[in-house]
Design goal:
heterodimer, A: 284 residues, alpha/beta, Rossmann fold, 9 helices, 40% helix, globular, B: 327 residues, 7-stranded mixed sheet, 12 strands
């Protein structure tokens, strides 16, 4: 039997590792939103695989030196899913996992929307939508000015593509050919009150990014192999910024939360909490 | 002020690699020399102020000291949340510059009347707010803001007071300048309207009234001591600003006095009471229209002193409604 190419073998080892990381992020998110009485668990579950692949396999990070100059920059523009980033950072060793228990607690620095103050590894505080892509573009532009090779990754929600500022930044990145910038859209098709389609349709979505001068790929946002392959293929040979439209399921991993608007805001409690954790059991 | 600001930036850029200048497609001919001399330190982001502040924050977090240039309210109100969340909260070295404070662009209409910016900018946490009164102050403030960590706001006026600096004078951010000595009353002015305050002080000399004139170039951090001294040493305080009376310099002085438990014997705020001005005109015209020119300032001071003089039965803290009626 033919041996897999070394890169492919490495990737398949990564897939096992990042799949477990994604599951752990999901479990943390369910616990954190329960303990903190907070919202947006569906949004975290939606992006958990993307975040796990980024932190577990793709990005150059250094938990022992979070501000290391050549680190890849990551911005969570959909700041309401901050619990997922705190979980990924804790799992990656940026701070103790016990910190997560105090998410949204009185006096906690782990706010519902991601904040950098007192939290090693967070590049940018967000929470108001439509800010992240501009700042990431500024970081990418700065890296190019200085001849640095690190990349800027930014994770957007589909809903925040309603914001005009997102498209100001998209236009800018395309114009300046920021091939060190990667925007990943967590395209779960559900926004705050209803579906994207019924609220403010984004299709043809890939065409829009293309028209703004981006290289675009559509991918299953829960397929670790595909995510890893695409997110690692950077910088792009075509010299364009790179948009990964990640088709996802809101609430992914907890059957009764999937495809549901309800879990944008609802806090998992009681039997719902137990049920969710049961669906996310692994080798702890 | 604008040209002096740009000249000063060029001077800094020649020796410091960190300086970066961005514009949201404004500054016709004003920024050309800078752009030509420093192509890698200049960027026109297009007509997109929100994006400009976001990009500036990203660049600042990567080590640049970024000046963002636009005019009137576009620099501030259009991208207020980016200034607050991105620049201020991250302590990013973003220096927001608005050319055309107050009625500098008087004829262009309310979109271009920047008459609430000081109140709004000074309410932002971790924000330094500066409004120079003359050319020297605008150059010195530019240097000072470059050296001040974090987010800053620089309001540049079209008008400027005649040169007020003494030979060898050192500019200190957050420290008001006494540009004229006097003890009958203090005129505390911010921005280019300092010129009108000085003119008023000149004309009051003829009536035997000696004004102390303060240039409050820094609104935040505020020089509390300069106001306390004015209360102690002069007959009262009249604030002068080309800005709404809600939340600007006059409010700041009043807050400061009450917080410190000090009452100026006489007090009056000269500023815009009319809200929007649907009529247009030159900066001079609109100052006259809304009771903020030198004549109106002098008249207000004379009235205030006469009402508050010892002959008056009960000298007291007076907060007088002045200015002309709103339009």
């Amino acid at each position: 039997m033919e041996q897999p190419a070394p890169q492919a073998a490495k990737r398949s080892a990564h897939v096992a590792a990042t799949s477990d990381l994604a599951r752990r992020i999901r479990r943390h998110a369910v616990r954190m939103t329960n303990l903190g009485g907070s919202s947006h668990v569906g949004s975290v579950l939606s992006m958990a695989d993307i975040v796990a692949v980024l932190y577990g396999a793709v990005m150059r990070i250094d938990p022992t030196n979070p501000k290391r100059a050549d680190r890849d920059r990551f911005i969570l523009s959909k700041g309401h899913a901050g619990a997922g980033i705190y979980a990924a950072l804790a799992e990656s060793g940026f701070f103790p996992i016990e910190w997560l228990d105090n998410h949204c607690g009185d006096g906690s620095v782990l706010s519902g929307h991601v904040s950098h103050k007192g939290v090693p590894g967070v590049e940018l505080s967000t929470g108001s939508l439509g800010h992240g892509l501009s700042v990431a573009a500024g970081m990418a532009y700065g890296a190019k000015l200085d001849g640095h090779t690190h990349r800027a990754f930014v994770l957007l929600s589909d809903g925040e593509c309603d914001e005009g500022s997102t498209w100001e930044a998209a236009l800018f990145a395309g114009h300046h050919k920021l091939d060190n910038l990667v925007a990943i859209v967590d395209y779960n098709k559900i926004q705050s009150l209803a579906s994207v389609k019924d609220t403010l349709g984004l299709e043809p979505f890939a065409d829009k990014w293309n028209a703004f001068g981006w290289s675009v790929v559509e991918v299953d946002g829960h397929d670790h192999g595909a995510l890893n392959r695409h997110l690692s293929s950077h910088p792009r040979p075509d010299g364009k910024p790179f948009c990964v439209l990640a088709h996802t399921t809101k609430g992914k991993g907890v059957s009764f939360m999937e495809h549901s608007v309800l879990w944008h805001y609802r806090t998992p409690r009681g039997s719902e909490y137990d049920g969710a954790l049961n669906e996310l059991v692994g080798d702890e | 002020m604008r040209d002096n600001f740009v000249r000063q930036l060029s001077e800094i850029a020649r020796t410091d690699r960190r300086l970066f200048l961005m514009t949201a497609d404004l500054g016709f001919r004003v920024l050309d020399d800078f752009a030509t001399e420093f192509p890698r330190k200049f960027l026109n982001v297009g007509i997109a102020e929100q994006n400009m502040i976001g990009i500036a924050t990203g660049l600042a977090l990567e080590g640049r000291i970024v000046f963002t240039y636009s005019i009137g309210n576009f620099s501030t109100l259009r991208c207020l949340e980016q200034i607050r969340n991105d620049a201020c909260y991250h302590g990013a070295n973003v220096k927001v510059v608005a050319v055309g404070g107050g009625f500098s662009y008087g004829v262009l209409g309310i979109s271009h009347h920047a008459t609430e910016d000081l109140a709004i900018m000074r309410s932002l946490p971790d924000m330094t707010v500066v409004a120079p009164g003359d050319q020297w102050e605008s150059r010195e403030a530019t240097k000072a803001l470059f050296a001040t960590p974090g987010a800053c706001y620089l309001r540049l006026d079209k008008s400027a007071a005649p040169a007020t600096a003494r030979s060898g004078e050192v500019f200190t951010l957050g420290k008001a300048r006494t540009v004229r000595q006097g003890s009958d009353i203090t005129l505390a002015a911010t921005g280019g309207i300092l010129g009108a305050a000085l003119e008023a002080a000149d004309s009051l000399v003829e009536q035997g009234i000696a004004c102390r004139v303060l240039s409050i170039h820094t609104i935040k951090p505020f020089d509390t001591e300069s106001i306390l001294s004015a209360c102690r040493e002069t007959g009262g305080i009249v604030t002068v600003e080309e800005h709404t009376i809600h939340g600007g310099l006059g409010s700041l002085v009043a807050e400061t006095c009450l917080d410190e438990g000090v009452k100026p014997a006489l007090f009056r705020r000269i500023g815009l009471r009319a809200g929007f001005s649907s009529v247009v005109g030159s900066q001079e015209h609109l100052r006259r229209e809304y009771g903020m020119d030198a004549v109106a300032i002098a008249k207000a001071v004379a009235e205030l002193l006469s009402a508050g003089s010892p002959r008056s039965p009960r000298p007291r803290l007076r907060v007088s409604a002045g200015g002309s009626a709103g339009r």
